[in-house]
C-alpha cells in the first residue's frame, strides 16, 4: 500500500510540474486576466510596476477584450536607460500612461489573425485628441511592430498567451509613440520616399518631421509605385537624377505644417496650403483625391495614419508643385 501511495504521489507531482511549465509559456492561462498573467510572470514585473503607476491594472483586469504587446523586463530597462530614467517611478505618469496604451489594441487578435498593415492602439499623441495612434504591423517574417527596435518598435518573441479577457504577445522592445518619420521608415512601401527625404543634398527632413517645431504635420505620402511612375513620367533613370531644388520643393509640397488634418476634415474643392508655398485641391467625387499645381490627379488610398506629431495619408501619385 505504501508503495502504491508513493507512486501516486510521484505521478501527481509530475502532472503538477508539467502543468506549471505549461502555464509559464502562457498556453493554459485562459482562466486568468491579462493583468493576472502579467503579475504571475517574473519577466514582466517592470511592466506590472508601470501599469500600477499609470493606474491601468484595473483596465486589464476586467471583462473587456484586449490585445497587449507586453515588453519584457530587459526591454523596459533598455527603454528607461535610453531615455535617462532611473526607474519606472521617474517617468511622468501622463507620458507613461500613453506609452503603455500604445501597446494595447481593442479586441482579441491572435498571431494568426494579425496581418501586415495598420491597426489603432489606445494611445494618443500630442497631435490629435480624437484620433488614436496607429501601429504598423509587418507579418512577412514573424510579427514586427513599427519597424522593430531600431525604429522605436518591437518584435513579438512569444505569441498567443491566452487570457480570459484577450491575448498577450510578449515583445522585445518598448513601443515608443511613433513620429511621422517612424511610420514612414516602418512601412516598406515608403522606402523610396525615405530615400528621397534622406538624400545627402536635401534639408534635414528627418529632423524636421521628427520634431515638434511647425508640428503637427499632415503628410501626403507617395508609395514606391508612385515614385516609379514619376520617374517614368519625367523620363528619369532614378531618384538621383531629380535636381536638388526640384526634389526639395516636391517633398515639401507633400507636407502641411501646423495642422493635423484628418480625412473627416477634407471637403470637396478644399484648397490646401503646403510647406512648399504652393497649394493643391482636394476632390471627393469618386473617392478622395488631390489635384496638384499641374492638374495631375492622385488618389488618397489610405487615410488617418496617426503619429504622435502628425498624420499621414497615403497617395498613389507624386504631387508636383510649380517648378
Write a short abstract of this structure:
With 323 residues, this protein is of the alpha+beta class. It has helices spanning 2-24, 34-40, 45-53, 73-82, 93-101, 180-186, 191-197, 205-210, 224-233, 244-252, and strands at residues 66-71, 104-106, 117-120, 134-138, 144-145, 154-163, 166-171, 217-222, 255-256, 271-273, 279-283, 289-291, 297-307, 310-315.
Q: What do you see in this structure?
A:
- The protein is an alpha+beta fold.
- It folds into two domains: 25-171, Roll (FAS1 domain); 188-315, FAS1 domain, CATH 2.30.180.
- It is built from ten helices and 14 strands.
- The longest helix has 23 residues, at 2-24.
- The N and C termini lie far apart (96 Å).
- It comes from Flavobacterium agri.
- This is Fasciclin domain-containing protein.
- Residues 1-22 form the signal peptide.
What's the layout of helices and strands?
Blueprint: H1 2-24, H2 34-40, H3 45-53, E1 66-71, H4 73-82, H5 93-101, E2 104-106, E3 117-120, E4 134-138, E5 144-145, E6 154-163, E7 166-171, H6 180-186, H7 191-197, H8 205-210, E8 217-222, H9 224-233, H10 244-252, E9 255-256, E10 271-273, E11 279-283, E12 289-291, E13 297-307, E14 310-315
CATH superfamily of the largest domain: FAS1 domain
The total tally of domains equals 2
- Overall radius of gyration: 24 Å
What is the average of the pLDDT values?
92
Beta-sheet strand percentage? Answer: 15-25%
DSSP, total strands: 14
The largest sheet is: 7 strands, mixed
Shape: elongated
The separation of the N and C termini measures 96 Å
Main-sheet strand order equals: 2-1-7-6-5-4-3
**Element-by-element helix/strand order:** HHHEHHEEEEEEHHHEHHEEEEEE
Low-confidence stretches: 1-28
Helix content: 25-40%
Fill in the CATH topology of the largest domain: FAS1 domain
Note the total helix count: 10
User: What would you call the structural class?
Assistant: alpha+beta
- CATH architectural group of the largest domain: Roll
CATH class type of the largest domain: Mainly Beta
Amino acid at each position: 500500500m505504501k508503495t502504491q501511495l508513493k507512486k501516486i504521489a510521484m505521478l501527481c507531482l509530475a502532472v503538477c510540474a508539467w502543468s506549471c511549465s505549461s502555464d509559464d509559456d502562457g498556453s493554459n492561462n485562459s482562466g486568468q486576466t491579462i493583468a493576472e498573467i502579467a503579475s504571475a510572470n517574473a519577466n514582466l514585473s517592470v511592466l506590472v510596476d508601470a501599469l500600477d503607476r499609470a493606474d491601468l491594472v484595473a483596465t486589464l483586469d476586467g471583462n473587456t477584450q484586449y490585445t497587449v504587446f507586453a515588453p519584457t523586463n530587459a526591454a523596459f530597462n533598455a527603454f528607461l536607460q535610453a531615455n535617462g530614467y532611473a526607474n519606472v517611478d521617474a517617468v511622468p505618469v501622463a507620458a507613461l500612461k500613453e506609452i503603455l496604451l500604445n501597446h494595447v489594441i481593442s479586441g482579441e487578435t491572435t498571431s494568426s489573425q494579425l496581418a501586415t498593415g495598420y491597426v489603432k492602439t489606445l494611445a494618443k499623441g500630442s497631435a490629435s485628441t480624437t484620433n488614436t495612434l496607429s501601429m504598423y504591423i509587418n507579418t512577412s517574417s514573424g510579427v514586427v511592430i513599427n519597424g522593430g527596435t531600431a525604429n522605436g518598435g518591437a518584435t513579438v518573441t512569444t505569441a498567443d498567451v491566452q487570457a480570459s479577457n484577450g491575448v498577450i504577445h510578449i515583445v522585445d522592445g518598448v513601443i515608443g509613440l511613433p513620429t511621422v518619420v517612424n511610420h514612414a521608415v516602418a512601412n516598406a512601401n515608403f522606402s523610396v520616399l525615405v530615400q528621397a527625404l534622406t538624400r545627402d543634398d536635401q534639408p534635414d527632413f528627418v529632423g524636421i518631421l521628427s520634431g515638434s517645431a511647425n508640428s503637427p504635420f499632415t503628410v501626403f505620402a507617395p508609395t514606391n509605385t508612385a515614385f516609379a511612375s514619376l520617374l517614368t513620367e519625367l523620363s528619369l533613370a532614378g531618384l538621383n537624377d531629380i535636381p536638388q531644388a526640384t526634389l526639395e520643393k516636391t517633398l515639401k509640397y507633400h507636407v502641411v505644417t501646423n495642422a493635423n488634418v484628418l480625412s473627416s476634415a477634407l471637403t470637396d474643392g478644399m484648397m490646401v496650403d503646403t510647406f512648399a508655398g504652393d497649394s493643391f485641391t482636394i476632390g471627393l467625387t469618386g473617392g478622395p483625391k488631390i489635384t496638384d499645381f499641374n492638374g495631375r490627379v492622385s488618389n488618397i488610398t489610405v487615410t488617418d495614419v496617426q503619429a504622435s506629431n502628425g498624420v499621414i495619408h497615403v497617395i498613389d501619385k507624386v504631387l508636383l508643385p510649380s517648378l
